[in-house]
């Protein structure tokens, strides 16, 4: 059985070390406690011993390279006697299964849940996209998992057959621990490659039940039919696959119009409306019977009251922690201002056809973002962050402006990087991309980290004035109200219709006072009410 040897903790707070010297080579027979490698941390030179008897299969690093703690250091074929100690549960498989495994020469390999975001140690298993016994291919999506920050799709590293799913949907899976086991295709060289990340606990005494008891036939990807290969390779999101399943539709039969042939929701809807797929005979018979039978309804007594309890997990839990930490640690104050958007609304109408010709939709948000970036050039403190102790202020040269996105999974705040160097068109493209990813639940960790100031467009839903909570450790946030047509007096005293928007700022009173936020808002308002003035400072 090929087993990944996980580099254990080599010192408090140490997350990586340099491979100074390998004391073994691939193919060597080694014994338990035999020194395998010398590694250098920033504190000491440490010798790493083997935990098993067996044969070195693959060294994952060259001498001089930096190895990660809790990641695979090398792989080895563990001797049968030593392999018994790899799992804590007794092995109970029957002789037939053993014979099948021996005949195929293929034992299940543990797929280790890799790092899926900075600081993320666990995630919720939202949906399995495969089931035990399924034939899967390398890079095929296997599961959707929900971290505190994003919905992440986990792809397979191998061709093979799913042997065991270690979690149920809704369970919490641990990063660096086995997610599922797979009987790897005999033609695949994937076993020789390191798993993305593996569990330190697994290296010492993994608590995963043995998977050798679940034996599926070995699969040769070269022998798959075109139909099977096509189904495996079809790209589609979980939501789209669910729609296809609910309509007894083979997702592989739908031509995808998305990137790299990805099947979109519209593709499935159009396919179903134009050419419905016939259900299997048994299913069709059942369906016909159910549609012709007269439903029997029984009057049920009405139940009054009742409660429902559910756990706060995933994005809701992360948002709760973030908001509590912000309110408890930051002394908030709010400043509100009214902005006449009439000139900007007219400019947007003039620019929209050109932006559409260039392939993107122009909303009001890119103007808010660019005006904010130009204002930050004169008020750097609004683009700063306070440390945990509250005694140091860090100024950022890049304007990574966040925009709150309301998604089916909860509130996300992705940010557009280096706005100060972007044109209005580039910002518009970025806004549309982040909004699309947010609605699809596909925002990744890179989209969400590194923000320096945030805009919340609550007015897109409704409301005029808000008291937004600062996205800690940032020092300011602005909430945009609904754009309204209201009567106002012009310079000659005549009542005219104006496009009015209310903006509500929240600031960190430890470093920003009312005067700073008022002057900053006045500068931002100047650009929005007189958009041509932005031209003087555009880059």
Radius of gyration: 29 Å
Helix content: 25-40%
Number of E-state strands: 27
Main beta-sheet annotation: 7 strands, mixed
Low-confidence stretches: 81-105, 187-224, 228-233, 275-296
Strand content: 25-35%
**Number of helices in the DSSP assignment:** 13
Anisotropy-based shape: globular
What structural class results from the helix and strand content?
alpha+beta
Provide structural commentary:
It contains 13 helices and 27 strands. It is α+β, with helices and mostly antiparallel strands and 539 residues long. The strands form seven sheets. Strands 17, 20, 23, 24, 25, 26 and 27 form a seven-stranded mixed beta sheet that branches.
Gist of the model:
With 539 residues, this protein is of the alpha+beta class. The chain has helices at 80-83, 95-104, 200-204, 226-233, 238-246, 265-274, 281-292, 314-329, 342-357, 365-376, 424-439, 445-448, 514-529; strands spanning 2-6, 16-22, 29-30, 35-40, 45-49, 54-59, 66-68, 72-78, 108-112, 122-128, 135-136, 141-146, 151-155, 160-165, 172-174, 178-184, 332-340, 384-386, 393-395, 401-403, 405-407, 410-412, 415-416, 453-456, 476-480, 484-489, 495-508. Helix content is 26%, strand content 25%.
Short key terms for the protein model shown above:
single chain; 539 residues; alpha+beta; four-stranded antiparallel β-sheet; 13 helices; 26% helix; globular
């Amino acid at each position: 059985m090929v087993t990944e040897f996980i580099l254990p903790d080599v010192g408090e707070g140490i997350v990586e070390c340099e491979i100074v010297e390998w004391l073994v080579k691939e193919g060597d027979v080694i014994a338990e406690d035999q020194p395998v490698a010398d590694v250098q941390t920033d504190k000491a030179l440490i010798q790493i011993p083997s935990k098993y008897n067996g044969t070195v299969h693959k060294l994952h690093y060259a001498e001089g390279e930096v190895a990660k703690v809790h990641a695979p250091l090398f792989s080895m074929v563990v001797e049968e006697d030593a392999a018994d100690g790899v799992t804590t549960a007794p092995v109970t498989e029957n002789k037939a299964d053993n014979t099948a495994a021996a005949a195929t020469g293929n034992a299940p390999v543990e797929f280790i849940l890799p790092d899926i975001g900075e600081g993320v140690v666990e995630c919720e298993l939202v949906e399995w996209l495969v089931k035990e016994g399924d034939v899967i291919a390398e890079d095929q999506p296997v599961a959707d998992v929900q971290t505190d920050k994003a919905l992440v799709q986990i792809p397979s590293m191998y061709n093979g057959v799913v042997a065991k799913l270690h979690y149920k949907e809704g369970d919490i899976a641990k990063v660096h621990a086995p997610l599922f086991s797979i009987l790897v295709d005999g033609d695949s060289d994937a076993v020789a490659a390191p798993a993305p990340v593996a569990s330190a606990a697994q290296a010492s005494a993994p608590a995963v039940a043995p998977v050798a008891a679940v034996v599926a036939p070995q699969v040769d990807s070269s022998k798959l039919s075109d139909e099977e290969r096509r189904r495996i390779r079809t790209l589609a999101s979980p939501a789209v696959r669910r729609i296809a399943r609910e309509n007894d539709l083979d997702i592989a039969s739908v031509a995808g119009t998305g990137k790299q042939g990805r099947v979109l929701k519209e593709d499935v809807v159009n396919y179903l409306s134009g050419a419905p797929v016939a259900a299997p005979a048994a299913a069709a018979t059942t369906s016909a019977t159910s549609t012709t039978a007269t439903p029997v309804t029984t009057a049920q007594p009405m139940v009054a009251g009742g409660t429902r309890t559910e756990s706060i997990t995933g994005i809701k839990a992360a948002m709760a922690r973030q908001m509590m930490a912000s309110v408890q640690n930051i002394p908030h104050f709010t400043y509100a201002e009214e902005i006449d958007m009439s000139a900007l609304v007219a400019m947007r109408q003039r620019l929209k056809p050109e932006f559409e010709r260039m392939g993107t939709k122009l909303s009001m948000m890119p103007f808010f973002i660019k005006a904010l970036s130009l204002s930050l050039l004169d008020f750097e403190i609004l683009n700063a962050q306070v440390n945990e102790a509250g005694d140091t202020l860090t100024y950022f040269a890049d304007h990574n402006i966040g925009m709150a996105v309301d998604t089916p999974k909860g509130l996300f705040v992705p940010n557009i990087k280096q706005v100060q160097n972007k044109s209005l068109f580039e910002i518009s493209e970025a806004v549309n991309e982040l909004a699309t990813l947010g609605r699809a639940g596909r925002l990744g960790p890179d989209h969400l980290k590194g923000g320096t100031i945030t805009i919340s467009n609550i007015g897109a839903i409704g409301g005029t004035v808000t008291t937004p909570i600062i996205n800690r450790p940032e020092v300011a946030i602005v909430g945009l109200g609904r754009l309204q047509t209201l009567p106002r007096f012009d310079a000659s005293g005549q009542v005219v219709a104006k496009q009015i928007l209310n903006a509500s700022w929240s600031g960190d009173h430890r470093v920003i006072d009312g005067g700073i936020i008022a002057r900053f808002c006045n500068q931002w308002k100047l650009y929005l009410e007189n958009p041509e003035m932005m031209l003087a400072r555009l880059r």
